[in-house]
């Protein structure tokens, strides 16, 4: 599962960044999936594909926008 630090997602939190779409530019909107192809959230890339492949494991690779737990955590304030 993806764990966020504030509003950023680190490469090591996505289990070593198993897969990433080729030629994804910096600041591109992305959907984040588990290794079983289950969508768990979305965000904006903070690095291009090439930068992600060579980034430090603690480097931020995406800015968190929402995830599958967002509704549950905010349910009381949304209704």
Can you describe what's shown?
The chain has 79 residues and is α+β, with helices and mostly antiparallel strands. The protein has one domain (4-78): PUA domain (Archaeosine Trna-guanine Transglycosylase, Chain: A, domain 4, Roll), CATH 2.30.130. It has 2 helices and 5 strands, in the order ββββαβα. The chain has helices spanning 49-53, 70-78, and strands at residues 4-5, 8-10, 29-33, 39-45, 60-67. A 5-stranded antiparallel sheet has the order 1-2-5-4-3, with no helix packed on it. A hairpin with a 5-residue loop joins strand 3 and strand 4. The chain is elongated, with a radius of gyration of 13 Å. The chain starts with a strand and ends with a helix. The model is unreliable at 1-6 (pLDDT under 50). Residues 18-74 form the UPF0113 domain. Pfam families: UPF0113. One of its GO terms (molecular function) is RNA binding. This is 60S ribosome subunit biogenesis protein NIP7-like.
CATH fold-level assignment: Archaeosine Trna-guanine Transglycosylase, Chain: A, domain 4
CATH superfamily, by name, is PUA domain
Q: Determine the strand fraction and express it as a percent band.
A: 25-35%
- How large, in whole angstroms, is the Cα Rg? 13 Å
N- to C-terminal separation? 27 Å
What is the CATH C level class, in words?
A: Mainly Beta
Instruction: Kindly state the percentage of residues in helix.
Output: 10-25%
- Order of strands, main sheet, comes to 1-2-5-4-3
Uncertain segments: 1-6
Oligomer: single chain
Protein name: 60S ribosome subunit biogenesis protein NIP7-like
Pfam families: UPF0113 (PF03657)
InterPro entries: PUA-like_sf, PUA_sf, UPF0113_PUA
GO molecular function: RNA binding
């Amino acid at each position: 599962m993806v764990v966020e630090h504030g509003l950023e997602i680190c490469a090591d939190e996505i289990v070593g960044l198993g897969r990433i779409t080729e030629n994804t530019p910096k600041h591109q909107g992305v959907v984040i999936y588990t290794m079983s192809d289950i969508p768990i959230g979305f965000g904006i890339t903070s690095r291009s594909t090439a930068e992600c492949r060579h980034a430090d494991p603690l480097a931020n690779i995406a800015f968190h926008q929402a995830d599958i737990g967002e509704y549950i955590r905010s349910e009381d304030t949304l209704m």
